[in-house]
Design a protein that fits this description.
Elements: H1 5-11, E1 17-21, H2 23-27, H3 40-43, H4 46-49, H5 52-57, H6 59-75, H7 80-91, E2 95-99, H8 105-109, E3 115-116, E4 119-126, E5 132-133, E6 154-158, H9 167-179, E7 182-186, H10 198-204, E8 208-213, E9 225-228, H11 231-247
Parallel strand pairs: 1-2, 1-7, 2-3, 7-8, 8-9
Antiparallel strand pairs: 4-5, 4-6
This protein binds nicotinamide-adenine-dinucleotide and zinc ion.
């Protein structure tokens, strides 16, 4: 794959780099995207499962679905796209990774401090006292887990429809965006707010905006360049190219 001279010349000067990822980056690990052909939301209506109202009216159903998703995530591995993003953290002196994914794969690939905008599906939180709990593996039937401190129901520590993003993650993301010189938007449909606006903020703030996606998105025409391809294939090639340039 041929990368633009502009991109390579920017990257070889060790700029501040930020990466925003979406479900597409995990697609090659076997996690289904939400809006793809086999997207999870085609089988279930999102408001029936991923909202506080859904949880309060049918916590058993919501827990059953999350147990299914937690089992999927437990069994998958990071793919070359994740490993390349982890390598970027070593290549660039100042590097930020912001993710909409809840699967924890960036950390497992080696990124030390991914900014998780939508939480982490392998972590649970008490609906009463907010105590955090590690993942729960059910041996038999899925049952609603309860807090050992206050006896309230536990829920997955993810952001549901209609909920605010975690304040600290949002603050960290804003800080990254304000500082960044090259911003990558990778494997995201760029429609879920506020993440969808982040590449635009970064560009308005002077960053060079690069999109990597298998399809066109609403961001494509706004980006300085849009690279069409799978993140697990494009990113390893890009890393190789940057390393070659740095060592020349
Ligand atoms: P999305 O499903 O809306 O979009 C995925 C995007 O990735 C699409 O634009 C698609 O063209 C692209 N894509 C698919 N395969 C790709 C590949 N191999 N390489 C590059 N691009 C590829 O997902 P989104 O934009 O992340 O937003 C939706 C929401 O879905 C978020 O709130 C997120 O929390 C949630 N979600 C998370 C996971 C996960 O944690 N792995 C999985 C599904 C959904
Ligand atoms: Zn509690």
């Amino acid at each position: 794959m041929k990368f633009s001279e502009k991109l390579i010349s920017l990257l070889k000067n060790d700029p501040v780099v930020s990466v925003l990822t979406g479900a597409g980056v995990s697609a090659e690990s076997g996690v289904e995207t939400f809006r793809g052909e086999n997207g999870l939301w085609r089988k279930f209506k999102p408001e029936e499962l991923a909202s506080v109202d859904a949880f309060l009216s049918n916590p058993e159903l919501v827990w059953e679905w999350y147990n299914l998703r937690q089992n999927i995530v437990r069994d998958i591995e990071p793919n070359p796209g994740h490993y390349s993003i982890a390598e970027m953290e070593n290549i660039f002196t100042s590097f930020y990774i912001i993710t909409q994914n809840v699967d924890g794969l960036h950390k497992r690939a080696g990124n030390t401090r991914p900014i998780e905008l939508h939480g982490n599906i392998m972590r649970n939180i008490c609906t009463g006292c907010c105590k955090l709990f590690d993942e729960i593996e059910f041996t038999g039937e899925v049952q609603i887990p309860y807090c050992d401190s206050c006896s309230s129901m536990l829920r997955p520590d993810v952001v549901w429809f209609g909920e605010m993003l975690p304040e600290e993650a949002l603050k960290d993301a804003e800080n990254a965006i304000m500082n960044t010189e090259v911003f990558f938007s990778i494997g995201t449909s760029a429609v879920v707010q506020p993440a969808a606006s982040m590449p635009v903020w970064a560009k308005n703030n002077g960053a060079y905006l690069v999109e990597i996606n298998i399809e066109e998105t609403p961001l494509t025409f706004y980006a300085d360049e849009s690279i069409r391809g799978r993140s697990g294939e494009v990113l390893p090639e890009l890393i190789e190219e940057i390393k070659k340039e740095i060592h020349e």
